[in-house]
Design goal:
Number of strands: 6
Shape: globular
Number of domains: 1
CATH class: Alpha Beta
Helix content: 25-40%
CATH superfamily: Phosphoglycerate mutase-like
Structural class: alpha/beta
Strand content: 15-25%
Number of helices: 8
Distance between the termini: 18 Å
Strand order of the largest sheet: 3-2-4-1-5-6
CATH architecture: 3-Layer(aba) Sandwich
């Protein structure tokens, strides 16, 4: 597997992202800003010459993936294992509402610590299914694979691939809408090459709790060119 690359691309913004509403596995569509973000980011990812695209089957991820597919001519394969974490009773609530109704797990979540919510997936469950989906896609791909997924799920996937414990994963910066993480495989395993890569600038968006990871409002540099 050495020499392979994995680009974990988060979907564009949705109205729930903008409102700070937890999405989880709720099937919320991209808003106008999210579609613009996808159009801005896709040419940069196309320049990375991906060999395959696999996406969460949730519409916000799949529609983001289709923008890249239109530029590359690649098909988009969907896999429900790449969905966002299922946050059970948190889904549809704002961060303030979650804090009021679930104060203890909300406080742990904000601190990047392990937490459990009845009716929701555990972080380990999310990591396991993400890892299985990504490894199956990698087995069917030579070269560079783009995985279009979600903020929290992508972070758990990175932790699983890198072999990081929970507290280390919790220190990874949130992945902004239409930003990506790049991992490269070497003889010694996966290495983190870039995080929160994407277009410089772009429209500022409010910090939101939706998808657990707040969208980035900062100016970020593009991913380094691959040679």
């Amino acid at each position: 597997m050495s020499g392979r690359r994995l680009l974990l691309w988060r979907h564009g913004r949705t109205e729930w992202n903008a409102a700070g509403r937890m999405q989880g596995q709720s099937d919320v569509a991209l808003d106008d800003t999210g579609r613009a973000q996808a159009r801005e980011a896709a040419p940069l990812l196309a320049a990375e010459q991906p060999d395959a695209i696999v996406s969460s089957d949730l519409v916000r991820a799949h529609d983001t993936a289709l923008v890249l597919a239109a530029l590359t001519g690649l098909p988009v394969r969907t896999d429900p294992r790449l969905r966002e974490s299922n946050f059970g009773p948190w889904q549809g609530l704002t961060s303030e509402e979650i804090a009021e109704r679930f104060p203890e797990p909300h406080a742990l979540w904000r601190q990047g610590k392990a937490f459990t919510v009845p009716g929701a997936e555990t972080p380990d469950e999310v990591a396991a299914r993400m890892l299985a989906g990504i490894e199956d896609a990698l087995d069917a791909t030579d070269g560079t694979l783009v995985v279009v997924s979600h903020g929290a799920a992508a972070r758990r996937a990175v932790g699983a691939l890198m072999g990081w414990p929970y507290d280390v994963v919790g220190r990874i910066g949130p992945l902004g809408n239409c930003r990506w993480t790049e991992l490269r495989h070497t003889a010694t395993g996966w290495r983190l090459h870039a995080h929160n890569a994407g277009p410089v600038g772009g429209p500022a968006v409010p910090v939101a709790s939706a998808d657990v990871e707040p969208p980035s409002a900062g100016r970020l540099t593009p991913a380094p060119a691959h040679h």
